[in-house]
Amino acid sequence: MGKWTRRAFIGTGGVLATGLVVGVAGNMYVSKAIKKYTGKGMGDGESLNAWIRIAPDNTITLAVARAEMGQGVYTSIPQLIAEELEVDMSRIKVVHPQPESPYANTFMMTQKEPNAFKGYNLMEKMLAFLPIIATGGSSSIPDAFTNMRTAGATAREMLKEAAAKEWGVKRSDCRAEDGYIINNSNGAKLSYGELATAARTVEIKDLPELKSKADWTLIGKPVQRIDLPEKVNGQAEFGIDVRLENMLFAAIRHSSTIGGKIISIDNQSDIENRKGVKKVVLTEFGAAVIADNTWRAKNAALALQVTEDDGGNAGINSADISKAFDKILESPPLAISEDEGDVDAILKGEGIIESTYEVPYLAHAAMEPLNCTVLVEDDKATAWVGHQGSSFVHSTLNAVSQIPKENIIVNTTLLGGAFGRRGEIDFVAKATAVAMTMKGTPVQTVFTREEDMQNDMYRPAAKSKFRAKVNDDGDIEAWDNMMALQSVSKSVTTRVAPAIAPSAEADEATSEGAAHLPYSMNNRKVSFGDYASPIPVGFWRSVGSSQNAFFTECFLDECAHAVGKDPFAFRRDKLNDHPRFKAVLEKVAEISNWGNVGENTYQGIALHKSFGSIVGQVAQITKVGEKQFSIDQFYSAIDCGNYVNPDTVEAQIEGGIVFGLSAALYGEITWSDGAVNEMNFPQYDMVKMNVSPRVQVHIMDVDEYPGGVGEPGTPPAAPALANAIFAATGERLRSLPLKNHGYSFI
Amino acid sequence: MKLNINGTEKEVNVEESMPLLWVLRDELNMTGTKYGCGVSYCGACSVMIDGIATRTCTLPVSAVVGKEITTIEGVSNDGNLTAVQRAWIQHQVPQCGYCQSGQILAAEALLDEIPEPTDSDIDAKMTNICRCGTYQRVRDAIHSAAKMRMQEAELLD
Ligand code: FES
Ligand code: FES
Q: Would A396 disulfide with which of A336, A425, A503, A686, CB 3.0-4.6 Å?
């Protein structure tokens, strides 16, 4: 690895800090900035606090420092603010602010999943790097739920106080209604726009009380998305759409083996003579061609003749990886996450159910290929990029360009999908290094689809070996799950913050969703073996749950069938200690009319909790030919506590299921001699309209703190489908993708 | 080369082999048409050429000289959203939105050809990838747009 790859890219606290305390967990940043804010996050002009600006013409601009990647956060966070501010959503405009400390996502770092491993917790370690301004882990709403309502309520009180002074009455004699402060005694009113300037200097001593749930008029309502009008007329600006004066385009030529290096370019002058090509550069990460047009740049990059060093990784092959997993499964575990009772004593002799499950590496393949635009000037650097972590972008520009932090601007655009990939900093670092060679000229570095797919930070492959005993009453006497996994946290930290990389600890991120299952079991053990590999792995929508739900929910199905029990009843009977899980399971059975389907139609069920939300799903499929099915319908119930926008919740479940099905049916990244075989969508296919099921979603009415919704819809999709196929064929499919078992879907 | 894009004539000076996609995006700064795969597979780069939905990432610009090119920026009339665009909002179709220019162009072309498409017509004609998985809403919005278009046609009669 080159020297820049060893730097701590996630940076240290105090990004454009506004004098706030750094390193304090919780919402210190927020509560301070709510009361007094002097930063520049929202750009020029005066604002009431770090999130709210009201112009004299009554336009309301809100700062949303979470990446809009399709999950609707540019609407749901404004709903929280507007609920307390008492304004109509139609008047709201959203800006994405600069990465300042008030916008830190502290929930992401402090949440603890009770079903996670007791091991290395990357998020906890990241607390050392506060403030981190990032979007991920389905954390935007849980982080914002109290903070943003408080920001709205405080601004409202500031406006009330300003009006009260104007009228010579008490604040308590005024009320806020639809963008006006009204004098209770005489009905006089002043608009927010008229009051905003005076309100800015008001200081509110105590944070106001928040409305009770019964009084909500926006939270829990299907408000229309703010960002959709420009997403239907071509005006929405994604990172790849940024156009600046004199801008150039760069294409990268990565080494052909993962972790390899391009040592020299052998036809540089030929390529530099091509039409439109401005420069060919060799940086530490690979070669790049800078041209006046993306197409010219990418063709030129393909035509480069290069000499490479394979980095010692030319021996990576998929077949060997699977064998390495087998070896780990037969070796003593690295860590035991859960060990209740005496599993080994029970799992002896006759009647043991034993199965091994496996999944491959997966690419993120967001629809918008990776890109980042950077302008480096003498002592200033500016980025335009769709990224999940604006503070990571900020510290990466600083690390690569050595330009002081206070002279770095990060413009966050819309994201054409992210799924975890756009939280990585590799493409930002590369774009910055390229722009460093063209000072004064903005350069947009774009990965081709092929470069994007072959230089991902993949969802790791994994293998799990289960052994269980179930008695005739259907009780699980013993459950043993030994997992062979590659640590996501280790791979991520090695890339961006080597100082906090785990040594030999079990990784919570990769193993989440496997331990502390809600089902009652008399004895249980879950253990973990570490697969060390130079293959870069990263966070992929639902992370460890993306495979562990498939493993555990399919093996549970095996246990049910082994004793002739109905898979729904078998699960339900084990959930008496977990009423929220039980309610979700019963609801999805009810809406799917479980067990009552027509001829040739089959159902499969799965239940899984991730990111604070419980999701139950039933897949309903029809047999149309030999090993050929139509995936007619998915039913899904979700308990995500209090929800902000039910239409967005439904959309995330609908999309999460399709995402899970693409992986289940087709998804597979394979390795030959250190390189990825799949190049583009024809080899790494996606579910399309003809295969996509209808989805019916039921959101449970539960008055609890919100859970996430961006990821929890994905994990149950694959096991629900595989369980339905078992119901139809009697064939237990223990590895993904299903195309490798000869199944096809229409 | 002279191109007719959204009813306006544009002059471009590029290689004949440059795909229309990159002429639109990088030469004319019309970025509504998206790059997704570059191999005519995902549909993100769809525009209408003489009324037919066409993928532009492998289509040489020389092949469209003299033809009518309609991009997402030009589907609506004087800023009035088409029935398809309105149905897209009504059903809150887009998530990230990146594929949606292509989805909308494909849907417009489908409804021009088959005013009242069945689900299997939609399965056959809507082959664009949406990584966010908005297919159910795309389907529902197409059915709604078909109704809106017919009502509008009746009003015009
Ligand atoms: S970009 Fe043209 S079909 Fe994918
Ligand atoms: S809306 Fe994101 S790819 Fe379709």
A: A425
Q: Residue ranges per domain, chain B?
A: 2-74, 83-156
Ligand 2: which of B99, B105, B126, B128 to mutate, most ligand atoms within 8 Å of CB? B99
CATH class of B83-156: mainly alpha
Domain boundary among A446, A478, A509: A446
Q: At what angle do helices A140-167 and A192-199 cross, to 10 degrees?
A: 90
Distance in angstroms (rounded) separating the CA atoms of residues B41 and B127: 9
Q: Which of A254, A250, A280 is nearest to A265 (CA)?
A: A280
Do A401 and A461 lie in one domain? The reply is: no
Are the Cβ atoms of A417 and B96 closer than 8 angstroms? yes
Beta bridge partners of A476: A470
Q: Structural domain of residue A177, as residue ranges?
A: 9-222
Same domain, A184 and A246: no
> How far is Cα A6 from Cα A397, in angstroms, rounded to an integer?
14
**Among candidates B22, B30, B31 on the partner chain, residue whose Cβ is nearest the Cβ of A293:** B22
User: Can you give B122-154 as a three-state secondary structure string?
Assistant: HHHHCCCCCCCCCHHHHHHHHHHHHHHHHHHHH
Put residue A220 in one of left, alpha, beta given phi > 0 → left and psi -120 to 50 → alpha: left
| Residue A380 CB partners (closer than 8 Å, separation 6+) | A403, A407, A408, A409
Note the Cα A470 to chain centre separation in Å.
37
Give the confidence band of A606 by pLDDT, cuts at 50, 70, 90.
very high
- The structure tokens listed for A630 are 């139509």
Res A502: pLDDT: 79
- State the pTM of this model: 0.96
- Could you tell me the distance, in angstroms and rounded to a whole number, from the CA of residue B35 to the centre of ligand 1? 6
Query: Tokens 């000289």 — which residue?
Result: B65
How far CA A556 is from CA of A180, A355, A562, A606, A719, in Å, comes to: 57, 11, 10, 9, 10
Per-residue confidence band for A336, with pLDDT thresholds at 50, 70 and 90: confident
Interface of A with B in 286-315 (CB under 8 A): 292-296
Tell whether A330 is covered by a domain. yes
Query: What count of Cα atoms within 13 Å lies in the side-chain half-sphere of residue A700?
Result: 27
CB atoms within 10 A of CB A173: 16
Residues A288 and A351 in one domain: no
Q: How far is CA A186 from CA A156, A175, A250, in A?
A: 20, 12, 65
Would residue A532 count as lying in a domain? Answer: yes
Q: In this structure, what token pair is assigned to residue A79?
A: 């709903």
Which atom number of ligand 1 is nearest to the Cα of residue B34?
1
| pLDDT value, residue A9 | 54
Ligand nearest the Cα atom of residue A368: 2
Q: How close, in Å, is residue B75 to chain A by CA atoms?
A: 8
Q: In this structure, is the dihedral angle defined by the CA atoms of residues B119, B123, B128 and B132, taken in order, positive or negative?
A: positive
A661 to A362, A631, A687, B58, B92: CA distances (angstroms): 13, 10, 7, 29, 22
In sequence order, what are the residues at sequence separation of 6 or more whose Cβ sits closer than 8 angstroms to the Cβ of residue A389? A132, A133, A134, A135, A136, A423, A425
Residue in A60, A57, A46, A136 with CA at minimum distance from that of residue A95: A60
* Displacement of CA A20 from its chain's centroid (Å): 28
Q: Is residue A19 predicted with pLDDT exceeding 60?
A: no
What count of residues does chain A have? 746
User: Can you point out the beta strands (E) in B6-76?
Assistant: 8-11, 46-49, 52-55, 68-70
B130 and A70 within 8 Å at the Cβ level: the answer is: no
Whether ipTM > 0.95 holds is yes
CATH of domain B2-74: 3.10.20.30
CA distance A334 to A337: 10
- Return the pLDDT at A131: 79
The structural domain count of chain A equals: 3
Residues A376 and A326 in one domain: no
**pLDDT, average across residues B45-49:** 98
Atom of ligand 2 nearest to the CA of B95: 1
